[in-house]
């Protein structure tokens, strides 16, 4: 009989330090096998040059090198359906318990339910932990136990309940309990059916200066390093949320801290209202008669609307996998309200392109732009794409970078008149929602 071992299953937590599930796995009696599963259910929906798959693979290679060089251990990298991977592992190892960290998206919840049932039938424990947030699920709720659907009261309760000595404890694992002398087969990107992307995930920038100047720089897309680029790193867990909150507190920056709390607000909305990734939070908004013109959608996707700030944002997204947050609000509003194209079309396109794609935030922000979500912009709030330039890119530094042909004859005419589009939107929304 093989020696008893436990498994730590990496998902959205691609780091060795301050990792709650890994910490608890290594505190157990059994030697620990760290693994990652490239889930075919997820991969088969992605383009073969998806930069996020390449980024995950890079992080796993780093973890693997560290485990091999410093601890005489290894990381098992698997490719398949999770239940099938655990079935195969259970034939090779005598598995005691599988440890992992919580995941809150609808697919992840269903996947974990199936894995838990399978492991239970095999007599294997399944333990999951809170890691990617400070507060989760129903930890921040109203007095009657109902979830908050407006951000500011949620933030106030979050801060009221927050206790740094408890909530910011760092979980530093004791690596002595890793399984020794085991080497797993190498897994190249090509083995997964993917190839290197031209797009790279940049390192995050969380310097003292950035945090202290955050409210002065974050709204202006032309400012280099005006935002942190933390998104993909929080999404895939290459940095812990606890460390980022600790930094925000240390620099006493409420705005930076609030951005981290927004992330948790949208996560708990998706947890309590999982239907919102497909349907409007406010059901009457599903009555909107979207125009859904495919030719216009293509122009929007390719940055050919004739509105320079909208086009700059879409071109930045297509070229880099990133779009400045201020510009995201404008391009989303333009799609839903100027073109009357269903927010789900835009959400799906962002899901395909964004390096920092996180379902809860993406759905939450798109529904905000469409007016259909929690704490949403009222439907009669329609961004003017021209005055947005005056407010946020007056010198056109950002526009000139991404729309260099702005003054050329080749640059397209505005695809829709702002005043006409605004009036049309108000009419269509009013007929749907009253």
TrEMBL record:
InterPro entries: Crypto/Photolyase_FAD-like_sf (IPR036134), Crypto/Photolyase_N_sf (IPR036155), Cryptochr/Photolyase_FAD-bd (IPR005101), Cryptochrome/DNA_photolyase_1 (IPR002081), DNA_photolyase_1_CS_C (IPR018394), DNA_photolyase_N (IPR006050), Rossmann-like_a/b/a_fold (IPR014729). GO terms for molecular function: deoxyribodipyrimidine photo-lyase activity. This is Cryptochrome/photolyase family protein. Keywords: Chromophore, FAD, Flavoprotein, Lyase. It comes from the Bacteria. Its EC number is 4.1.99.3. Its cofactor is FAD; (6R)-5,10-methylene-5,6,7,8-tetrahydrofolate. It holds the Pfam family FAD_binding_7. Belongs to the DNA photolyase family. Transmembrane segments: none annotated. It comes from Croceitalea marina. Residues 4-134 form the Photolyase/cryptochrome alpha/beta domain.
């Amino acid at each position: 009989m093989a020696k008893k071992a436990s498994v730590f299953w990496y998902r959205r937590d691609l780091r060795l330090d301050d990792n709650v599930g890994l910490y608890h796995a290594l505190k157990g009696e059994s030697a620990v096998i760290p693994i990652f599963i490239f889930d075919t259910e997820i991969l088969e929906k992605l383009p073969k040059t998806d930069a996020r798959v390449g980024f995950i693979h890079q992080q796993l290679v780093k973890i693997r090198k560290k485990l091999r060089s410093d601890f005489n251990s290894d990381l098992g990298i698997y490719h398949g359906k999770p239940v099938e991977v655990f079935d195969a592992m259970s034939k090779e190892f005598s598995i005691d318990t599988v440890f992992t960290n919580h995941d809150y998206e609808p697919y992840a919840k269903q996947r974990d339910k199936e894995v838990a049932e399978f492991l239970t039938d095999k007599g294997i424990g399944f333990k999951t932990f809170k890691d990617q947030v400070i507060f989760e699920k129903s930890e921040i709720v109203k007095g009657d136990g109902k979830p908050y659907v407006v951000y500011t009261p949620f933030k106030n309760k979050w801060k009221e309940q927050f206790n740094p000595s408890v909530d910011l404890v760092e979980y530093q694992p004791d690596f002595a309990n890793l399984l020794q002398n085991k080497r797993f087969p190498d897994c190249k990107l090509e083995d997964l059916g993917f190839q290197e992307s031209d797009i790279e995930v940049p390192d995050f920038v969380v310097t003292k200066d950035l945090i202290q100047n955050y409210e002065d720089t974050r709204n202006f897309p032309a400012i280099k390093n005006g935002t942190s680029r933390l998104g993909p790193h929080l999404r895939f867990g290459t940095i812990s949320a606890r460390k980022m909150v600790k930094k925000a507190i240390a620099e006493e920056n409420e705005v930076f801290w609030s951005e981290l709390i927004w992330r948790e607000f949208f996560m708990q909305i998706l947890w309590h209202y999982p239907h919102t990734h497909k349907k409007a939070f406010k059901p009457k908004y599903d009555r909107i008669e979207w125009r859904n013109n495919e030719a216009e959608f293509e122009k929007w996707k390719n940055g050919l609307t004739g509105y320079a700030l909208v086009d700059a944002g879409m071109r930045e997204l297509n070229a880099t996998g990133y779009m400045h947050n201020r510009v995201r609000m404008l391009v989303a509003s333009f799609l839903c309200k100027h073109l009357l194209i269903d927010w789900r079309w835009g959400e799906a396109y962002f899901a395909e392109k964004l390096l920092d794609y996180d379902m809860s935030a993406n759905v939450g922000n798109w529904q905000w732009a469409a007016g259909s979500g929690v704490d949403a912009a009222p439907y009669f709030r329609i961004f003017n794409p021209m005055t947005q330039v005056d407010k946020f890119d007056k010198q056109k530094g950002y526009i000139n970078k991404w729309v260099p042909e702005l003054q050329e004859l080749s640059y397209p005419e505005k695809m829709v008149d702002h005043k006409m589009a605004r009036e049309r939107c108000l009419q269509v929304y009013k007929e749907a929602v009253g």
